[in-house]
Design a protein that fits this description.
- It is built from 17 helices and 20 strands.
- The chain has 466 residues and is an alpha/beta fold.
- It folds into four domains: 14-112, Rossmann fold (3-Layer(aba) Sandwich); 147-207; 213-328, Cobalt-precorrin-4 Transmethylase, domain 1; 332-465, Methyltransferase, Cobalt-precorrin-4 Transmethylase, Domain 2.
- The strands form five sheets. A six-stranded mixed sheet has the order 15-16-19-17-18-20, with helices on both faces. Strands 3-2-1-4-5 form a five-stranded parallel sheet, with helices on both faces.
- Strand 17 (404-409) and strand 18 (417-422) form a beta hairpin.
- Helix 7 packs antiparallel against helix 8 (194-206).
């Protein structure tokens, strides 16, 4: 660490900016945001600088003199002339001010970092002037990981520090705040429900030694590509105490979780349930009762054929705080990976999602006549084993035998496979392509636009191998 990082209260300190151009304006914006009313002085001040700073700074359009710097705590030198910059840096330092010279780190007593401003929460990143572009990239990465309401959370906790201090001794306060930031009240603030958060906070302050329940997040992991994980989902994974995941969650996504988080596999496959649904729900509730931050991680989106609704109802009924983070569902993820739009002005004015099997692994009781009559895109989840019935029912109810279809297995993953053909041949397509699942069936004119092999191409390849 070459420089000591610190945060300075500028509200009662004199801040001077020597210069009148764009660089001076940029420095003025920084210090004004921190509460300062700077003195900006130079022989010629740009019109844009004058206009923007007229109400927030003292402007003197004249050559600066030593007396202008009297009593200054900080001086920013933002002039193009190298000799003038060196001279004013020396003069500023001689009157006891700390000096920053724009783009001249060797002349600086302090440097201005790249700042993330979330109200009371401020994060500064600096490379001591060595790599400003790298610093900007790091700032962007940090910004992406911060919840939008993290500043509001800092304000919220600030209001209750004294009350908690009055109720708890020093030994207990740290544990209280650790549980708070990992628990449901902080989650309420981050989700924008401060009213409910204040009510809950007053209740636990009056019962500070009562064990706090944890919180449950039902999170969509997307179709498998870790780069399609949402920023919020990534943050929740990295904060989780325990993660319950299913078979559609990729190893690459799990590797992004906090290293010491417990991982519980509760995956299901057709007719081979690893853990019954009711037991999964009981486990989620029991872990939250222990005060843990629980993430229930589901492939795709938890509310699109992911049983997320059932788990949400069960956790709510148990009185546990629960929040849902959506994910990119398999249909949109697979369609994008296949270069195929699910809706298209020339081919499909609507899209319908259905499941290929219903509760307890029974065949779905669908309105086949209505589905066949739509003539738009039909996306079937979990339809590999019932594809023959789906095809025959749609054709029997009027959908054309030559309607294009695409079968996408392991969509948006390295092992992705895309097979194309027509509705009447869907079973042959699945067999010829060696499709095992998880796979999505896309039925409709847009399927012809997908990247991938046709049945004839597969047959030719098999003949060459033979």
């Amino acid at each position: 660490m070459n420089r000591f990082p610190t945060f300075i209260d500028l509200k009662a300190r004199k801040t001077v900016i020597i210069g009148g151009g764009a660089a001076a304006l940029a420095k003025a914006r920084l210090v004004i945001a921190a509460g300062a009313e700077p003195l900006v002085i130079w022989a010629e001040i740009d019109a844009a600088t004058r206009s923007e700073l007229a109400d927030n700074a003292e402007l003197i359009e004249a050559a600066p003199v030593r007396a202008d710097l009297a009593g200054a705590a900080l001086v920013f030198v933002a002039v193009d002339d190298a000799a003038a910059a060196e001279r004013w840096a020396e003069i500023s330092r001689s009157v006891g001010a700390l000096v920053n010279v724009v783009d001249r780190p060797e002349l600086c007593d302090f440097t201005t970092p790249s700042i993330i401003d979330r109200g009371r929460l401020t994060i500064a990143v600096s490379s001591d002037g060595a790599a400003p572009v790298l610093v900007k990239r790091l700032r962007a990465d940090i910004e992406a990981l911060l919840p939008a309401n993290v500043g509001a959370l800092a304000d919220f906790t600030g209001r209750y520090r004294s009350a908690v201090k009055a109720k708890l001794n020093a030994a207990d306060r740290r544990g209280f705040w650790e549980a708070f930031f990992n628990g449901p009240i902080a989650a309420l603030v981050l989700n924008g429900d401060e009213r409910a958060a204040h009510e809950a906070m007053l209740e636990i302050i009056n019962r500070p030694h009562t064990k706090q329940d944890g919180v449950v997040h039902i999170v969509g992991a997307g179709p498998g590509d870790p780069e399609l994980l949402t920023i919020k989902a990534l943050r929740l994974l990295q904060n989780a105490d325990v993660i319950l995941y299913d078979r559609l969650v990729s190893d690459e996504i799990l590797s992004l979780a906090r290293r010491d988080a417990d991982r519980l596999y509760v995956g299901k496959a057709k007719a081979a349930h690893a853990v019954p649904q009711a037991e999964i729900e009981q486990t989620i509730i029991a872990l939250a009762r222990e005060g843990k931050n629980v993430v229930r991680l589901k492939g795709g989106d938890p509310f699109i054929f992911g049983r997320g609704g059932e788990e949400l109802e069960a956790v709510r009924a148990a009185g546990i705080a629960v929040f849902v983070t959506p994910g990119i569902t398999a249909a949109t993820g697979c369609a994008a990976a296949a270069g195929m739009a699910l809706t298209h002005r020339d081919h499909a004015q609507a899209v319908t999602f259905v499941t290929g099997h219903a509760k307890d692994d029974t065949e779905p009781d669908l309105d086949w006549a209505a589905l066949a009559a739509l003539k738009n895109t039909l996306v079937v989840y979990m339809g590999v084993t019932t594809a023959d019935k789906i095809s025959s029912q749609l054709i029997a109810h009027g959908r054309g035998r030559t309607t294009p279809v695409a079968i996408i297995e392991n969509g948006a993953r390295a092992s992705q496979k895309i097979i194309k053909g027509v509705l009447a041949d869907i079973s042959a397509l699945i067999k010829a392509g060696g499709i095992q699942g998880p796979a999505l069936l896309v039925i409709g004119e847009v399927a012809a636009l997908a990247d991938g092999e046709t049945l004839l191409g597969l047959a030719a390849e098999q003949r060459r191998v033979a």
